[in-house]
Amino acid sequence: MMTMTFSDATKEFQRFLVQQGRSPKLVWVFREDVFLYPDALDIRWPLPANNTERAQQLYESGQEQGLGVALEALCEQGKVTCCYVFVPADKTEAECALLSGLKFSILTTPIPTRKVWLGILSSTFSRPVTLSPYRHFADAQLPKREAA
């Protein structure tokens, strides 16, 4: 199977986003950066500086695994598209996600989103909530940041 570098995949993903009328300026999010609610989501801001590097590592790990990789647009925050890398845990999960190579995905209906600055976060933001309307990027699918 021919593989594409993270840089090339990101460029293709940006072209895809532009074709869908979305911003090609990307930031990469992980589970700890996203807080889901019944009708909206919050993005922790500023995002960690190493999120792009972590996304690349996850992408490359998924390429090596050989079950497919998805670059997914979660939401837009101003003129920035918040994205994540999805790598299936096993063959069954890859089949359920219709993955076999590289897949790009966006939600057709944007989710209301706001930035939540780190200094404003309170204990009520300590746990993301998994919601059935947003199962597409539910807790199990958003990647966790690996311990450094």
Please characterize this protein's 3D structure.
With 148 residues, this protein is α/β, with parallel strands linked by helices. It has one domain (6-137). Helix content is 24%, strand content 25%. It is built from three helices and seven strands. The protein has helices at residues 6-19, 51-65, 91-96; strands at residues 26-28, 34-36, 41-45, 69-77, 80-86, 102-106, 113-117. It has a four-stranded mixed β-sheet with strand order 1-5-4-6. A three-stranded mixed β-sheet has the order 2-3-7, with no helix packed on it. A hairpin with a 2-residue loop joins strand 4 and strand 5 (80-86). The longest helix has 15 residues, at 51-65. It is globular, with a radius of gyration of 15 Å. The termini are far apart. Mean pLDDT is 80; it is low at 120-140.
SSE arrangement:
Elements: H1 6-19, E1 26-28, E2 34-36, E3 41-45, H2 51-65, E4 69-77, E5 80-86, H3 91-96, E6 102-106, E7 113-117
Parallel strand pairs: 1-5, 3-7, 4-6
Antiparallel strand pairs: 2-3, 4-5
